[in-house]
Automatic annotation (TrEMBL):
Keywords attached to this entry: Signal
Lineage of the organism: Bacteria, Pseudomonadati, Pseudomonadota, Gammaproteobacteria, Chromatiales
Signal peptide range in chain numbering: none
Family membership noted in the UniProt record: Belongs to the leucine-binding protein family.
PROSITE patterns reported in the protein's UniProt record: PROKAR_LIPOPROTEIN (PS51257)
Protein name: Branched-chain amino acid ABC transporter
UniProt entry tagged with the keyword Zinc: no
Record InterPro entries: BCAA_transport, Leu-bd, Peripla_BP_I
Pfam families: Peripla_BP_6
Annotated ranges, domain Leucine-binding protein: 27-375
């Protein structure tokens, strides 16, 4: 994985806009802060790579509104304090027209007040529901919410006749929010949480938590809500303990990298994810099929590594911003913000977006596809 220093990088491609004077207008500045290194690098590294390659591609195809895109990015290392510092620099010193960032919920929320105060459109790539609920005028997000992920899992548990579960979750912002959402809606699906344990971001063994959950004879399945290394450790400990119960994970681990980390221990794990992990399993008339196949092919050819849903969040953020600018006919922040709220049936990697003034995410729980690990590969279940 590349080592990135916390410096701004300006990316411009070959500008070929027909009938446009390259020097006639300043570039449209896209500011980004991502966790390309640190504990969330599994998420942030593919996000940054995605932004880099598509800014280059868009510029090579003529830019947006006859103007180049200029990507200015910083690596926050997964630290909220750094995210706030870099977001402030992007907004106040770099004078960006649009902000993309927040690999994690914690880094996103550190920047939210700054974007709101600066009145610059901001699209987050993090999952917690608190990012867009309640609605904030200038803040949007591309992943489904943690509540939607919980709904998708609990629905499957209900279909499987599971009524009592053990919940284990990370204590980071993503894990805490997912735990809260799961606890809030479990009863709606006739499910009772009879064991509830947590682990910290630096924990390297979750045997104790899993043993306590497994010792509860009422538990019929276990659901882990977390991201990064934690869920992989949970899965390996799960196999080591010989726990014979269904194991569900959240969308926080939806990548081929998770399969590499867990090996045979992942067999049978279920989770909600975007169709990016199983693009060829989609029917030909699915409006997302061409999008996810194209993104997967371009990313893997460019970087020679497996695609991940996290990079897909960055793809959707950039493409939603570009589409909004084109609809608005302007990069002026207020016009772009208004255009984002008029997004209809936008086929992205993550789902079909329908963004409104009342919904700054624009996705439904059904945008999640339910996957299961079979023979070390992702398989589409529903």
């Amino acid at each position: 994985m590349r080592k990135l220093t916390a410096i701004a990088v300006l990316l411009t491609g070959t500008f070929i806009g027909v009938g446009c004077d390259q020097g006639s207008e300043d570039p449209i500045r896209i500011g980004a802060f991502v966790s390309a290194t640190g504990p969330a690098s599994l998420l942030g590294d593919p996000e940054l790579k995605t932004l880099e390659m598509y800014v280059e591609k868009i510029n090579a195809e003529g830019g947006v509104l006859g103007r180049e895109l200029e990507l200015i990015h910083y690596d926050d290392g997964g630290r909220a304090s750094e995210a706030r510092r870099y977001a402030n620099r992007l907004l106040r010193s770099d004078n960006v027209d649009f902000l993309i960032g927040g690999t994690t919920t914690g880094t996103t929320m550190a920047a939210v007040p700054l974007a709101e105060r600066s009145e610059i459109p901001f699209i987050s790539m993090a999952g917690a529901i608190e990012i867009t609920e309640p609605v904030r005028d200038w803040v949007f997000k591309t992943p489904q919410t943690d509540r939607m992920a919980a709904e998708r899992i609990l629905q499957d548990m209900q279909n499987e006749g599971i009524e009592r579960i053990g919940l284990i979750s990370g204590t980071d912002s993503f894990g805490r929010s997912g735990r809260e959402q799961t606890k809030e809606i479990a009863a709606d699906y006739g499910i009772e949480i009879v064991a509830d344990r947590t682990y910290g971001p630096d924990d390297t063994d979750m045997t104790s938590q899993l043993t306590r959950i497994n010792n509860n004879d009422e538990v019929e399945a276990i659901f882990n809500f977390g991201f990064g290394q934690g869920p992989a450790i949970v899965t390996r400990n799960y196999e080591h303990l010989g726990i014979d119960l269904p194991l569900y994970q959240s969308h926080g681990v939806a990548s081929d990298r998770f399969l590499e980390l867990v090996g045979s221990a992942g067999e049978g794990v279920r989770l909600p994810a975007s169709p990016l992990l199983v693009p060829d399993a989609l029917p030909d008339d699915d409006p997302q099929k061409a999008v996810v196949q194209g993104y997967k092919q371009e990313y893997e050819q460019r970087w020679e590594e497996s695609v991940s849903t996290f990079g897909g969040y960055a793809y959707d953020a950039l493409m939603l911003a570009v589409a909004a600018m084109e609809r608005a006919g302007s990069a002026e922040p207020a016009q772009v913000r208004d255009a984002l709220e008029q997004t209809e049936d936008f086929a992205g990697v993550t789902g079909i977006f329908n963004i409104t003034p009342e919904d700054h995410n624009g996705l439904e729980p059904e945008s999640f596809r339910l996957l299961e690990v079979r023979d070390g590969r992702w398989e589409l279940i529903d």
